[in-house]
């Protein structure tokens, strides 16, 4: 570790940064990782988030992570379906209904006024450039980062259409460093192939739940869209989901090879499908367990930065 890499803020403590990666429903594991770090007495001061990482990172820097965790752990399949505004224009979900709910129940301050630093990563649809968002309302910054092709519609921000940041920087280590992090802890959700858009037990679960005729109609539209083929051959959108995951995995490997984080955490959530947002409790528990498994490595890096500074 070079001396430049160990410059710290006053008090001799290194600035801890989080790079929270894209990965749809698996991203609830980010909540458990942050909670696990806090239990160790480690308080990240810089957060760089892509896609679902931008949402969780936003909840953390605004001080509402625990309340947010309680909410997502209570989500059922029916709740998830109810928050989706089916569009089929640019993406199956517009996202307005979901983010309107966030605005009603969570703080939405401007990023530049936060005590902790937050940067979200999006992709400029026209130029393909990587965009780092460090100003403006937190929820707009998160929404711009979450426009996964085929799922969420693009989001217009400052006159430009934004796509999911995972297309260019799935685990934004570089952004965390640029924002002043001395030690970067990265959470990579793309190391395991996603199983599909909707797990089979998810389909059977919603079919067994009581629902109105309107809700069943919405669900049928989703079933038609997210179909997983005939059981032998993959369905069209299973191919799309796996293709995006493969692409993000390769981009992540390449970018992290050039700018590796000090610690890389990979949640073991192989059976999670893209839309399994109702399984938050499992993902959060895995995130917390992951921090415990890597506690020695995490403390080693944090400690080494302090020692080099002294």
UniProtKB/TrEMBL annotation:
Recorded protein name is PNPLA domain-containing protein
What is the residue range of the signal peptide feature? none
Cite a single GO MF annotation: hydrolase activity
Alphabetized, the UniProt keywords read:
Hydrolase, Lipid degradation, Lipid metabolism
Stretches assigned to the PNPLA domain: 18-177
PROSITE patterns per UniProt: PNPLA (PS51635)
Hydrolase among keywords: yes
Protein source organism: Alcanivorax nanhaiticus
Where does the motif DGA/G lie?
164-166
- One BP term from GO: lipid catabolic process
